[in-house]
Fold this protein.
Amino acid sequence: MIGRCLAGTLLGFPLAGFLLALLLQWLPDHGEPWLIPVLILFFPLWTGLMIGAYFFRNGARAWLALGAANALAWAALWLSRHAAGA
Amino acid sequence: MKSSTLRTFQTVHTWTGLVAGFALFVAFYAGALSVFHDDIALWQNPPWRAAGADVSLDTLARRMVEAHPQARDDFGLVLAPRGTTQAPYAYWVQDGEARFATAAAIAAPSTGDPARGSLADFVYALHYSLGIPTVGLYLMGVVSLLYGLALVSGLIIHLPQLLGDLFALRAGRNLKRLWQDAHNAIGVLSLPFHLIFAVTGAILCLSTLALAALNPLAFDGKLSEAYARATTTAPARPAGGAAAPMLPPETLVERARAAALRTGVSSFEPDYIHYMHYGDRNAVVEVRGLSQRTLGTFGTVALDGADGTVLSVHVGARQDANGIVNSSMYALHFGSFGGRAVQWLYGLLGLAGAFLFYSGNLLWIESRRRRRHAEQPRRVRAMARATVGVCVGSCLGISAAFVATLLAGALGADPALPQQWACYGGFALACLYAGLRPVPRATPELLLATALLTALAALLDLARNAGVWLQPWSHATAAVFAVDLAGLALAAGFAGLARASWRRARHGEPNHVWALAAEG
């Protein structure tokens, strides 16, 4: 219980940030005209991830899955920034 | 859904509700009152009780730059709610700290609460921070997050029987069933309203912290500038160096209003004036105001400070997506988008929300009660005491603050300290009373005390303004009269609750923490 709670809270925070950063990255003009509407999604997204973490069977799985999702989202963000720069 | 998952969410719902419920009760009760912020400000300082010299905005701006010339490049004037005799004040940042001063106290600005003594702002501060400076705001942000979790987990638990039970209100012998039905019905039917507050509450309290953390983490350090670009509406104009006389703020406000109305909104009530490079030929003055008949209720008009030319209009549909969303977020939270009808709707839904958290605690008690014993478990008694002390105590404290403000005003004293003492003192006494006295007696007695204090504030004010009710009525007369009537209605509500809890104590099921028989 507490493992899933911590996984959702601690890993949900950066994951929500990475996902929104990706969305802005892929929108035209890096999403500047829609920055505020996208940022408003942050807290609902984080809450959704915190709730989502409880659907895993135990804390270890939640940490593993959310950790992997963080790594993937970060990698995608890094790639799309550098692809755009090239 | 698996039953183990449902049980997990039951636990999440119970814990988030327990941790955040008390703070949410205060936030919703004080918030329901804060919807009528400007009316409460009028109630305290109606125009017929003019206090002190009436200082024009122009005098305030002149004295401001005279006393603090270093702030002339960037300062603001905060306007008082329309019709009140409350003084407008200047706002600027010096040495990284916010400063506030009225025209009368311009040489000695305060760094603390700019609206000290204003009852409406006191209740509003209780709403967003429980009255605790700085930390309280973040605390309420965390509470908003827990509130979001409680809403979603509650919805998930309730999902299997959602439609079947939605309109069921089984009033029978089983009181727990009735409380459960009422809790679910209010929770589900006002869910859109609650989702708005969970989201906007978290944003209003925590967005600064979240942006600061996310900026280096996910946005390569580019978020702050992008955010500033998305929210800044005033045209950037460097100071020209040549001095020029400024048009009075009153003139600029009128021009701003005219420019705003040309965009098709039905009104523009200015509440803030932002000065950049006061006294310079390139001075820019941005007037912010509240409009109706638009999605983006808060809008700004930027003008040339020297000749009054309109430089940019970000009002109503003339705002971009960022501006509209930013502005509608405030409108949705404050209920400022639909005149009186929406204000009353928000006020009633706010009270219903307070009831939601109160009934949540009652349900916790009901489901842990021992049916066959007079003696109830220790944690059930503790929860009953805490619920009565905190919930009824905060209503009592707020009503006491109304009485204290009125008495201080009548005696010509500064209302700031009496307000705080009455509110926090009343709250602490109520908690103490609920902690020591048997619960079935403390509950009706505290409710009755709250009813009496609430009625006292309304009746004293009705009597004090007796002469005014006989004169021709203005907008302000109606607003103040309505505050008194609403006070009497609330008092009647508290008295009704006192009567109901007293009846239950005497005639309700005996094996219960609320029953008088349980005392033995």
Q: What stands out?
A: The first strand of chain B starts at residue 75 and ends at 78. The radius of gyration of chain B is 25 Å. The mean pLDDT of chain B is 90.
